[in-house]
């Protein structure tokens, strides 16, 4: 079997690595991939958002299954094109991907299907004054979100009315997020603790992977601006068996039923960001793909055959698939360039990768790197590497991950030293 993974980040490296462990020994291609994916797959120089180029590659190489990593190709309709060509694909159609591609659509969808989430209002640039009046009447804290895709940085939690008005001005007046800010969603602040669930769906049935908790802020103690994610761990202790049961019945299953009823059966990865508080789990946001860095912890804890899992998601039959329970825990730490999440310098040599990867239980996933083992790796982006580890407990996994971090170095390297602290505190291990 020939499998194409679309994307170029650490998430796609994790997907390719999980596929390479399958007893079916598939041939794996990654478009465009990165230096890390080259160790387990063949990289093909086609951009993830080049839908025509991907279709040409699939036809030319006789691809049997496509797994789409990032959200943009899905919003652009890659899954629709592949389905029309008869190629199994893990990823929702453009209509179903609106759950991530349009927060305005997602909030209205949740209203229609009584799925628990925060109260909200949606505004356009022409309704700027109405949005200001709404924020002033609601008060703070309050959340302002660009409706479209904003690389994980479009949700702004505002502690004061002034911050909320600044966010509205930045999105609606100044175009801080381009077309992603044509609509803005202003919603009530939900108290609680965030966590994420990942349902692999075939349109009717689903398999739930381990829960996870991401760390979005650049600074320790959740300070500073939002990023694409600075680390994660799984499973998240906040997601108890009872919370998972409620989330399945009140959120995941009504979401899949609602999408079917509206003519857009959901196939692929449904990523549900949850706020867990006194009112139970409520939806913060949907995403239509595996998270990054969450993929780097939930996939290492999946002990089944990843090829079978993804093939059934694309073709059906997840309802009869036996999935081994996750064992132990996983944690990962993102190593970022100086300046991230703003402009970053590139081209700094990276040392210590071989030493980190040689540690038992540790694996380093590439994201913003270039070069290779012969010429040496250098930085080429904001989030450069994810150091991931698996252990018998969360404490062991975190200790291993940070041992791996200690082996790696490049100029300006920044990372958070408090990944997993909330989980350890909840487990009484802090």
Give an overview in words.
- The chain folds into 3 domains: 83 residues, Rossmann fold (3-Layer(aba) Sandwich); 70 residues, Dna Ligase, domain 1 (2-Layer Sandwich), CATH 3.30.1490.20; 235 residues, ATP-grasp fold, B domain (D-amino Acid Aminotransferase, Chain A, domain 1), CATH 3.30.470.
- Strands 3-2-1-4-5 form a 5-stranded parallel beta sheet, with helices on both faces. It has a 5-stranded antiparallel beta sheet with strand order 12-15-18-22-19.
- It has 430 residues and is α+β, with helices and mostly antiparallel strands.
- The model has no long low-confidence stretch (mean pLDDT 94).
- The longest helix is centred in the middle third of the chain and has 21 residues.
- Helices cover 31% and strands 27% of the residues.
- What is the CATH topology of the largest domain? D-amino Acid Aminotransferase, Chain A, domain 1
Distance between the termini: 46 Å
What's the name of the CATH homologous superfamily of the largest domain? Answer: ATP-grasp fold, B domain
> Helix/strand/pairing class, anyone?
alpha+beta
Q: Are there runs of 5+ residues with pLDDT below 50, and where? A: none
Shape: globular
Fraction of residues in H or I helices: 25-40%
Strand order of the largest sheet: 3-2-1-4-5
Mean pLDDT rating: 94
* Number of beta strands: 22
Number of domains: 3
Q: What's the architecture of the largest domain in CATH terms?
A: 2-Layer Sandwich
Could you tell me the radius of gyration in angstroms? 21 Å
CATH uppermost class of the largest domain: Alpha Beta
Largest sheet: 5 strands, parallel
**Number of helical segments with 4 or more residues:** 14
Beta-strand level of the residues, as a percent range?
25-35%
